[in-house]
Amino acid sequence: MRGLGFQKDLKFSWKSIYPMLISCIFVIISQLSLTLIPHSFSSSPLLLQLCFSVALLLIITVLCRIPKRLLKIYASAPAFVFFNIFFMWIVHNLVIRTSVSLVTTIVLNAECALLLFGFHSILYSDPGWVINEDSTSDQLLETEVIGTAYLEEEEVLRTENSFPTMRVRYCKRCKAYIKGFDHHCPAFGNCIGDLRQELNITHLAYLLSFKSMQFYYKSTLSGKLVISTMLFSLLQVLWKVIFFIWHIYCACVNIKTDEWINWRKYPEFQLFHPQAGQSYPEIGFINPYDKGVLANIKEILSPRT
After folding, report:
1. Span of the secretion signal (predicted)?
2. Which residue, 18, 83, 64, 103, is CA-closest to 232?
3. If we measure between CA atoms, which residue out of 70, 75, 71, 40 comes closest to residue 55?
4. Angle at 18 between CA 12 and CA 23, to 5 degrees
5. Are 242 and 204 in contact (CB under 8 A)?
6. What is the model's pLDDT at position 208?
7. How far apart are CA 213 and CA 225, in angstroms?
8. Given pLDDT bands bounded at 50, 70 and 90, which one contains residue 12?
9. What is the CA radius of gyration of the chain?
10. pLDDT of 165
């Protein structure tokens, strides 16, 4: 790291094989374990099977952490995502493909290819790393709230063009300053910033479509492996719908997840209301970046570097 700069290490290392192997084993164990649900509760309602699936995945996660901590080996979250997508693709092409139309197979394979392309792009693209050594490194103060940073209030009043600068936040996980920092994504092991926000929303849309189509076609078929992967797809759809709606909302009002959670840490979001008889004013919320829905979306589609 040079100054505020952050250079992502993209070189291959043999040590990275072990986390990938652990992730692959974890995916196989979790996916095959889910076949116990349709085997043991085939006559139960879908909602009940879904609840059992969540409980089983939680149990597997806890049990898998024990040997990982004892042996001091850890899985890779990005590899876990990749192998889950790969497993679902294998199930479709080996088990389901003969029961659906050729067009459906082509569409699902195309969506899987787009998912992997988006996955690679999010992993290795620039989220908005601040690499200018003359940036406001001495003005940025690290907070104790999820590893972000903000400018002192006197700098806000003193600097006319302070708003773009203030959207540079520090991520403890990446040990880097990110412009337009939204959140650190555990699934990709990377930050989502200004230069990845559009890509993140697009990837979520493709992933949601891929899982929804899989759930729809698997719900018309039988077989333990088909039903178990259908339950997994439904779980993915449920939480990704909420996540997708949240990011669409943030895009429309031009606010980051980190800013929405920690707005009291950032002076530009604070609106002071003097209260009669009180020594301290009441602090309200104001979003200085909201320029209207169309202007906000246009800003996301054409981020400034």
Report:
1. none
2. 83
3. 40
4. 110
5. no
6. 80
7. 17
8. low
9. 23
10. 52
Let me know the angle formed at the C-alpha of 221 by 219 and 227, rounded to the nearest 5 degrees: 60
Which residues have CB under 8 Å from 203's CB, separation 6+? 115, 118, 119, 121, 122
100-148 pLDDT, tens digit per residue, is: 888 888 888 888 888 888 888 888 888 888 875 444 444 444 433 333 4
3-state secondary structure of 303: coil
Q: Which of 1-15, 139-153, 200-214 has the lowest mean pLDDT?
A: 139-153
Cα–Cα distance measured from residue 291 to residue 251, given in angstroms and rounded to the nearest whole number = 11
- Six-digit token pair at 46? 């879908």
Q: Where are the domains of the chain?
A: 18-125+194-245
How is residue 184 written in tokens? 């650190």
Residue type at position 251: A
C-alpha dihedral, 37 to 38 to 43 to 44, nearest 10°: 40
Q: Are 145 and 265 in contact (CB under 8 A)?
A: yes
Q: CA-to-CA distance for 198 and 114, rounded, in angstroms?
A: 15
Residue with the two structure tokens 């490194």: 137
- Beta carbons within 10 angstroms of residue 285's beta carbon: 10
Alpha-carbon distance 222 to 44, whole Å?
Answer: 15
CA distance 230 to 240: 15
The candidate with the shortest Cα–Cα distance to 135, out of 97, 178, 174, is 178
More confident residue, 280 or 41: 41
Mean pLDDT of 47-73: 85
CB 286 within 8 A of CB 293: no
> Residue 168: what pLDDT?
87
Express the helix, strand and coil content of the chain in percent, nearest 5 each: 60, 10, 30
What's the CA gap between 52 and 41, in Å, rounded?
9
Q: Is 292 left (phi over 0), alpha (psi -120 to 50) or beta?
A: left
